[in-house]
Design a protein that fits this description.
five-stranded mixed beta sheet; alpha+beta
């Protein structure tokens, strides 16, 4: 059991690292690349008669590119979740979703919840990422809400969306996709239960109840 848990930790670390690299690649291409292209365009039109506000706008664009690059460099730290903690990791995940302009998000975390332990937090964070990925791929949602209650001995994580939803009975009959399978298999490793509430046109809520032994 200990060996299986260690293998799950390693797999989770690799998956988070892979997702981080994917995010970095997308940010460089879609965000920072566009900003620097605008800066280059502005610079090509500069002349002694260029108004001051255009200089200021270009400076702001460069400042944003520098900040975004700094944020991406922080993301490259392989032990970032251990370093900044699960709460800040979740908060940054939700901020990233907001920055896309496609989703409204809300995050509520009880003051009593400060995380569980570093290994459980790592697996829990990956489970949350899996849930969010499923929302992005399948739900057609415009809002994502997350609420965490309890403490390190008995915590509940609820992730909900306003997407298309689905018939949970059909899910039982048809079987789960890889994303949900990963969530359920990891739940066993950290002594958690998974409850899915959904209906067509009513969105979906996934509730994780973590109660370490």
């Amino acid at each position: 059991m200990k060996n299986k848990f260690d293998q799950t930790i390693l797999k989770t670390q690799l998956e988070i690292q892979e997702q981080t690299f994917t995010h970095i690649s997308r940010e460089i291409h879609d965000n920072i690349g566009q900003i620097l292209s605008l800066v280059r365009l502005n610079l090509s039109t500069f002349s002694p008669a260029t108004p001051e506000d255009k200089f200021e706008h270009t400076d702001q664009l460069l400042g944003k590119a520098i900040k975004d690059l700094r944020d991406l460099s922080h993301s490259l730290q392989t032990n970032r979740i251990h370093d900044i903690g699960i709460i800040e990791s979740i908060r940054q995940l939700m901020i990233t979703l907001e920055k896309t302009g496609r989703y409204k998000t809300s995050l509520k975390i009880a003051d009593t919840f400060t995380g569980i332990d570093k290994d459980t937090d790592l697996i829990l964070f990956r489970m949350i990422q899996e849930i969010v990925n499923n929302i992005l791929k399948h739900a057609g949602a415009s809002s994502i809400d997350m609420e965490i209650s309890g403490d390190q001995h008995d915590a509940v994580v609820r992730v909900s969306d306003n997407g298309s939803g689905f018939d949970t009975e059909k899910l039982k009959n048809a079987g789960m996709g890889i994303g949900l399978q990963n969530i359920f298999s990891r739940a066993k490793m950290i002594h958690a239960s998974v409850d899915i509430k959904s209906a067509p046109g009513m969105g979906t809520a996934i509730i994780l109840h973590i109660k370490p032994k």
